[in-house]
TrEMBL record:
SUPFAM superfamilies: Band 7/SPFH domain. It is a single-pass membrane protein. It comes from the Archaea. GO terms for cellular component: plasma membrane; side of membrane. Belongs to the band 7/mec-2 family. InterPro entries: Band-7_stomatin-like, Band_7, Band_7/SPFH_dom_sf, Stomatin_HflK_fam. This is Membrane protease subunit, stomatin/prohibitin.
Length: 256
């Protein structure tokens, strides 16, 4: 009876110690172990033992973490105010650094993402922000990765999700785009007129050197008019030849 009274408490104590000593972590987790306050090592995945009371553990998740960076009010390089938000993806690659080098790596990475986003957008103009999203994403990722590397953090991706511009600025951008399209249209029209004028001048010279060709062209025009059954006044070929001569004289005058 006395022996059983002794064994039972010992058995309870052993079970209690084992429950505290046995640890199991998943494949995507690691445990940083401190023994009497000093870094002892990193364990996991699977089952391992620690010394209760003497050892303390900090569990770290190695999976990719997503940070939803809240909307930031930023002034671009050309003094345009925009609201920008982004998504940042990172993972812990050095668990011991994530525990020892920074107090709270999740909060630190989130705050750094916000400040880096503002700094990066502030160094570019609005046109670049709207047209070079992929390049800006890579630049922000590289800036974050350099800053978080001492913490054992690897930034795997950054995506600018939304860029919001003031309505007044949107109207100004729309007017600028419309003016640019109109300018291109006028340039193309002017180039077409110039090419057509050159071709007409060349044709006039050819007809002057080949009167028979001019007559054939006149007959072809008459045939086309006859097929269309339209009324047209046809000038004498001599008059057309005179016009060709005038065109040649005008061309030689310009060259002189």
């Amino acid at each position: 009876m006395v022996l059983s009274d002794i064994i039972l408490p010992i058995l309870i104590l052993v079970i209690f110690i084992l429950s505290k000593a046995i640890k199991i972590v998943n494949e995507y987790e690691r445990v940083v172990i401190f023994r009497l306050g000093r870094l002892s090592g990193i364990k996991g995945p699977g089952l391992f033992l620690i010394i209760p009371i003497i050892d303390t553990v900090v569990k770290i998740d190695l999976r990719v973490v997503t940070i939803d960076v809240p909307k930031q009010n930023v002034i671009t390089k050309d003094n345009v105010t925009v609201d920008v938000d982004a998504v940042v993806y990172y993972k812990v690659v050095e668990p011991s650094s994530a525990v020892n080098e920074v107090e709270n790596y999740k909060y630190a990475t989130s705050t750094l993402s916000q400040t880096t986003l503002r700094d990066a957008i502030g160094q570019i103009e609005l046109d670049e922000l709207l047209s070079k999203r992929e390049e800006i994403n890579r630049n922000i990722q590289e800036m974050l990765d350099v800053s978080t590397d001492p913490w054992g953090i690897k930034v795997t991706g950054v995506t600018l999700r939304d860029v919001k511009i003031d309505d007044t600025m949107l109207r100004a951008i729309a007017k600028q785009a419309e003016a640019e399209r109109e300018k291109r249209a006028r340039i193309i029209l002017a180039e077409g007129e110039y090419i057509a004028a050159e071709k007409m001048q060349q044709a006039a010279k050819l007809y002057q050197d080949m009167p028979a060709g001019l007559k054939l062209r006149e007959l072809q025009t008459i045939a086309e008019v006859a097929r269309e059954k339209n009324l047209i006044v046809i000038s004498n070929s001599m008059e057309i030849g005179g016009m060709a001569a005038m065109s040649k004289a005008f061309s030689e005058k310009n060259k002189g």
